[in-house]
Design brief:
single chain, 217 residues, mainly alpha, Butyryl-CoA Dehydrogenase, subunit A, domain 3, Heat Shock Protein 90, 2 domains, three-stranded mixed β-sheet, two-stranded antiparallel sheet, 59% helix, kinase, AK/P_DHK_N_sf, mitochondrion, EC 2.7.11.-
């Protein structure tokens, strides 16, 4: 909230930016209602806290789009931004969106663990201790292929390769986060391949490198 006010005043005064500021102010006030709770609150207060977090999660669902709209409103009113202002806005947006991912991750984890909706008993909240990397990649590919075929009437195939002494492609991760990242990369790869290769379209090649302490796609 403090960093928002470091933005150019012209952007802060945009209607959509004001909407985002209002959302964060309301959520901050909602959290203040629990600041004096004991370390071990009653079941009733824990339920209230969880429900409040769920409301905040829903309230901020479209913050990314709303903040982007604020930038568009500024550009429509003032035209192209100067280099310094553009860099200032981009620096803020990068930090803002990264912070949002972290906050939503923490809130989602709490809501899933303490809320009534236990979607997958294998998962610990939103984290899957045995996230199936190949399964997520296949799911992302199939979703991207469907869109590609709808738009271009064709889509490239995909090959996968696992490199490393340990061929196990399972690790602790958030499946939904991994899916979104892989989906976007595969979707962009499909567009590039289709638009640049009318004939003899090569496949998308996905390489999974398994190390002792990490896994890289």
């Amino acid at each position: 909230m403090q960093e928002i006010h470091l933005l150019p005043e012209s952007l802060v005064t945009m209607p959509s930016t004001k909407t985002v500021i209002g959302l964060y102010k309301q959520s901050f006030l909602d959290m203040l209602a629990f600041k004096d709770e004991p370390k071990r609150p009653s079941d009733g207060r824990l339920t209230d806290f969880t429900e409040t977090l769920a409301q905040i999660l829903e309230r901020h669902r479209e913050v990314v789009e709303t903040m982007a709209q604020g930038v568009l409103e500024l550009k429509e009113r003032e035209g192209d931004l100067d280099t310094q202002t553009e860099a200032q806005v981009q620096y803020f947006l990068d930090r803002f969106y990264m912070s949002r991912i972290s906050i939503r991750m923490l809130i989602s984890q709490h809501v899933i663990l303490f809320g009534p909706d236990l979607r997958n008993n294998r998962q610990i909240g939103s984290i899957d201790p045995h996230c199936d990397i190949m399964g997520v990649i296949d799911h992302a590919y199939n979703s991207a292929r469907f869109l590609c075929e709808q738009f271009y009437l064709t889509a490239p195939s995909m090959t996968t390769q696992v490199i490393g002494l340990d061929k196990t492609t399972e690790f602790a991760y958030v499946p939904s986060h991994l899916y979104h990242m892989v989906f976007e990369i595969i979707k962009n790869s499909m567009r590039a391949l289709v638009e640049k290769n009318e004939d003899n379209m090569p496949p998308i090649h996905v390489m999974i490198c398994v190390g002792k302490e990490d896994l890289t796609i």
